[in-house]
């Protein structure tokens, strides 16, 4: 399991009518973190499309522990674990300093773009994240 760290300063676009980070924005950050991690290990969207296998989301979950506010500096820790032949889960921990403020996870399935159906995650792809 390769951990990936992503730093983010909360901007005005993330803030909702209650003055804290909007719950939908967590999911945007999860997507940004996942893409940044994939890019860092060479599993870019371009490479995925050339390979004919892409990651698609099956489910997102988030647990909000403490509110996040404008100008908060976050570190988001993320890692992936293969679940079954065609699925993988990416885990997230959102920190403000040393304080854990949220946890989340996304379940992905690996999708064959040529056959238009799920496929087993190739070992060489899984190895990029382990």
What does this structure look like?
The mean pLDDT is 96. Helix content is 25%, strand content 42%. The protein is α+β, with helices and mostly antiparallel strands and 130 residues long. The chain has one domain (4-129): Thiol Ester Dehydrase, Chain A. Strands 1, 2, 3, 4, 5 and 6 form a six-stranded antiparallel sheet that branches. The chain has helices spanning 23-40, 45-51, 123-129; strands at residues 4-9, 53-64, 73-82, 87-96, 99-112, 117-118. Belongs to the 4-hydroxybenzoyl-CoA thioesterase family. This is Acyl-CoA thioesterase.
Gist of the model:
The protein is of the alpha+beta class and 130 residues long. It has helices at 23-40, 45-51, 123-129; strands at residues 4-9, 53-64, 73-82, 87-96, 99-112, 117-118.
Mean model confidence by pLDDT = 96
Share of residues in strands: 35-45%
Describe the main β-sheet briefly. 6 strands, antiparallel
Radius of gyration: 16 Å
Which structural class best describes the helix and strand composition? Answer: alpha+beta
The helicity comes to: 10-25%
Task: Count up the domains.
Answer: 1
The CATH homologous superfamily is termed: Hotdog Thioesterase
Oligomer: single chain
The helix/strand order is EHHEEEEEH
Which shape, going by the Cα principal axes?
elongated
CATH class: Alpha Beta
């Amino acid at each position: 399991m390769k951990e990936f760290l992503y730093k983010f300063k909360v901007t005005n676009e993330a803030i909702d009518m209650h003055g804290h980070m909007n719950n939908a924005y967590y999911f945007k950050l999860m997507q940004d973190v996942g893409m940044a991690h994939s890019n860092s290990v060479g599993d870019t969207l371009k490479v995925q499309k050339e390979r004919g296998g892409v990651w698609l989301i099956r489910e997102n979950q988030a647990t909000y522990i403490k509110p996040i506010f404008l100008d908060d500096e976050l570190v988001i820790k993320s890692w992936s674990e293969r679940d079954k032949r065609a699925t993988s889960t990416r885990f997230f921990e959102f920190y403000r300093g040393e304080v854990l403020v949220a946890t989340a996870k996304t379940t992905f399935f690996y999708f064959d773009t040529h056959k238009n159906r799920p496929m087993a995650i190739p070992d060489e792809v899984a190895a990029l994240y382990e």
